[in-house]
UniProtKB/TrEMBL annotation:
Superkingdom to which the source organism belongs: Bacteria
Name of this chain's protein: Aminotransferase class I/II-fold pyridoxal phosphate-dependent enzyme
One Pfam family recorded for the sequence: Aminotran_1_2
Record-linked InterPro entries: Aminotransferase_I/II_large (IPR004839), Kynurenine-oxoglutarate_AT (IPR051326)
Cofactor: pyridoxal 5'-phosphate
GO molecular function: kynurenine-oxoglutarate transaminase activity; pyridoxal phosphate binding
Ranges where the Aminotransferase class I/classII large domain occurs: 27-374
Protein family membership: Belongs to the class-I pyridoxal-phosphate-dependent aminotransferase family.
GO annotations of cellular component type: cytoplasm
Keyword set, alphabetical order: Aminotransferase, Pyridoxal phosphate, Transferase
Length: 381
């Protein structure tokens, strides 16, 4: 009989809620993927490169054209220069990037600080590498970082800190003060950073995503993991990247080459062409801000309490003033009885702590959001 390496891991909440949505014909605002297609021109570019015969293995680190395009974008947007040959790696989705980065630096017994609520792939990756998760709760309700708690959590065994900004599920966007404080805490210690930046271009109200690598000290110790899928509405294509200094990238690539080796070839060439126009990622914030605003305006009539998300394509809302029902039970009941599927945020905590907060994905067509809002307004409690 197989002894499970992850005995406590079952079917993810995203699968559970999506199945409930399908079974009960509910509007699915649970799983974090766009409810609309990518731009036809990008599809045309993929077809072009497939028809031209770009259908065999890509180089392990990614096709040069896309690595070059990504390096130029990073220099232009963030004024940070990464060497496309040795510091930029294309991978099969940001989840792979996160796993490879964690694997590159975590050894049995190493402690890894997870800021909760945290995306559900972090903890399993840490445990599979023999690491010991150390949980630090974010402030509620804004999901900002309690830096005193982080400082107390750091020990001589701390090897890695996981960072996610803009934050999923909370929508908090790190400030320069957050970044400077982190740099102060890790200075002089052998601690690395894995930064989950998949929502980097989805920030609102004039806020800016400030990558950790813009701090000269943090750049030396940070794996920055990103997603073309989130940016260009192509989550099903599973294509992401990792930016890291030369020595870290070398270790990262040792893991990557035995996970997927390389990533789908024609899509890499297509993305390199598609990204020639910076507006395709720089103006994404306005596209999603309109959806966030539409959804939040409708939420005002539901009785739920919320603060508009600063980034990501998720909006959290609390209901504790209306009911003592657990967030998991409420989410299930909403899918079955109200007709709207969402995610209970307790699933993002290792101890399933329940703050009576639900997460909704507003990366959907406007008419679908409007239908969901009418359902929520008509009979949530």
């Amino acid at each position: 009989m197989i002894k499970s390496k992850l005995p406590q891991v079952g079917t993810t909440i995203f699968t559970v809620m999506s199945k409930l949505a399908a079974d009960h014909k509910a509007i699915n605002l649970s799983q974090g993927y766009p409810g609309f297609d990518c731009y036809p021109y990008l599809q045309d570019l993929v077809t072009k490169y497939m028809n031209e015969g770009y259908n065999q293995y890509a180089p392990m680190s990614g096709v040069p054209a896309l690595r070059n395009r990504l390096a130029k974008k990073t220099l232009s947007v963030y004024d940070v220069d990464y060497d496309q040959e040795e510091e930029v790696t294309i991978v099969s989705g940001a989840t792979e990037a996160l796993y490879a980065a964690i694997t590159a630096v975590v050894r049995p017994g190493d402690e890894v600080i997870l800021l909760e609520p945290a995306y559900d792939s972090y903890e399993p990756a840490v445990r599979l590498n023999g690491g010991v998760p150390v949980y630090v709760a974010l402030n509620i309700p804004d999901f900002s970082v309690d830096w005193e708690k982080v400082e107390k959590a750091i020990t001589p065994k701390t090897r890695l800190i996981m960072v996610n900004t803009p934050h999923n599920p909370g929508g908090y966007v790190w400030t320069q003060n957050d970044i400077d404080t982190l740099a102060d805490l890790v200075r002089g210690r052998e601690i690395y950073i894995v930064s989950d930046d998949v929502y980097e271009h989805i920030v609102f109200e004039g806020k800016a995503h400030i990558p950790l690598f813009t701090h000269p000290e943090l750049r030396k110790i940070t794996f920055a993991c990103g997603s073309f899928g989130k940016t260009f509405h192509i989550t099903g294509w599973k294509i992401g990247f990792c930016l890291a200094p030369k020595k870290l990238s070398a270790e990262f690539r040792k893991i990557h080459q035995f996970l997927t080796f390389s990533t789908v070839t024609p899509i890499q060439y297509a993305l390199a062409d598609y990204m020639e126009d910076p507006s395709r990622y720089l103006y994404l914030r306005f596209f999603y801000e309109e959806k966030r605003d539409l959804f939040c305006k409708g939420l005002e009539s539901t009785g739920l309490k919320f603060t508009p998300a600063e980034g990501s394509f998720f909006q959290c809302a609390s209901y504790g003033h209306l009911s003592d029902e657990s967030d998991y039970d409420l989410a299930v009941r909403m899918a079955k009885e109200v007709g709207v599927a969402c995610i209970p945020t307790s699933v993002f905590y290792h101890d399933k702590r329940d703050h009576k907060i639900l997460r909704f994905c507003f990366a959907k067509e406007d008419n679908e959001l409007e239908k969901a809002l009418k359902l929520l307004q008509s009979g949530l409690f």
